[in-house]
Every structure is written in C-alpha cells, then in structure tokens.
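Q: Could you fold this chain for me?
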Amino acid sequence: MPPATTPRGGAGRVPPSGDARSPAKRPRDSDDSGSDGDGDSDSDSDGGLVSDLKEIVCLLRLIKGGANRDGQRMCEQIIASVAAEIQTMLEETQLKFEMERQNLLKVLSNTSKEQCENSLNEEYSKLQETYDMFCREKDAHMQTFRDLFSEVEVEKKKLLEQYEHHNGDHHVIRT
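A: Sure. Below is the predicted structure, expressed as structure tokens.
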C-alpha cells in the first residue's frame, strides 16, 4: 500500500514496519492474528486499511466542517449582498416615487390654477353681464321714476290751481 499524506501538509505516513507506527495505527492484537511478527500478514494489512479508512473519514469530517463554515460564511455574504441590493432598490424606488409625486403635485397645481383662473374669468364675465344689465335697467327705472315724478308735479300744479280756484270762488261767495 502506498504511503498516504494528510491534506494539511503533514508528513507522509511511514510504511508499516514494526514499532515505527503510532499506537492508534498498529493492529490491536497482532499476536492473535496468527502472524509471525514481521508485519506483512493479511490481518496487519486489513488493520492498516481500517486505520487508514478511519483517518480518511475523520479528515472528510474536518473538510465537511470547514466547508460548512465556508458555506455558511458564503451564505451570509450572499444574504448581506442581496439585502444591500434590495435596500438600494427600495431607496431608488422611494426616490422615484417621491419625484413622481412632486411632478404630479406640480401638474395638479398648474391644472388647479388654470381651472381656478378659468372659473374666475367665467364668474367675472357673468358679473359684468349682470352689472351691465343692472345699469341698463337702472337707467330705465330712473327714467320711469323721472316721468312719474314729472306727472306728479303736473298733477300737483293742477290740484293747487284747482284748490286755489275753488278756494277763491268760495271766498268770493262768502263775501
């Protein structure tokens, strides 16, 4: 079996040969396996394979843990990036909405101003027509009043003359 190396840059494994192996990698019961003690038997090789597999599983777990941490870090970075993009989009949307609101207010203000001016002009025209009609009617009423007043004056003079004439005849008869 070729020597294995650790992914952390550790030294290569020492080939199985007697006591040079670490206690965790030595076969547990080398005397019970029926070997001569030379370390090249099948059970010694199986023990080394099991030990290697355990070491590989342990290293894979370490790699998986590191990958999980890296993956979590990457997820956190992605989430932060997406959150920042969403925040930027929200701010841009709010700015756009505010600009559109301002434009709408300007349009409404101008429209309202125009409508108000139009209404004022219409009402002024109506008022002017009413005033002109009032002035014409006033002149007509004043002329009617003058005519009536003149008639009253004429009738008053007639009545005074009749009174004086009637009073004068009456006065003459008494004497």
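A (continued): The chain has one domain: 18-174.
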